[in-house]
Amino acid sequence: MNWIQEIAKLAYIKQVLAEADQRKLWPHHLPAVAATPAQIEAVEAALGTRLDRNYAELLLHADGWRGFYQTVDLFGTADLLGSEKMSAARELLGAVDDDVISATRNRRNDLLPIAATTQDRDLFVLTLPKAEAPGEVLWLAGELIDRFTNVGEFFLAMMDYNRLEVARFQKK
């Protein structure tokens, strides 16, 4: 995946969305500056496992993104190392019903929060290397909303969801 190109496309979509969002319902930010390889290594050491290659590549181009989708923030390395947002996301993951976790065919401790909001139940988790299907991204919000086969597919889908927001605002 050409992360530079895809991040630029999403930044443009987010700019159009910011202009269309006259009531300023959602936060609108550019992505954070790229993480360094040392930051990725620090996260992997803290987690005790390697990050999914696609997610690590994304972080090496954008180390997080506030307001990635509506009020959902895409986590960067500082979040992964332990931030208030990560603590809230882990708490949210802990509150997901066991039946919902079981339906994802994963164990709770095989799921790493990578994006979340503190204003709702939306939580995006990455399946870790020891999971049945490593590298998947799951969208949880009290139930399994969607499943993305990898971080690239997740990113492209979020671009589409942001485009839908643009269309919704432009109809008003």
TrEMBL record:
Gene3D superfamilies: SMI1/KNR4-like. Transmembrane segments: none annotated. Residues 35-155 form the Knr4/Smi1-like domain. This is SMI1/KNR4 family protein.
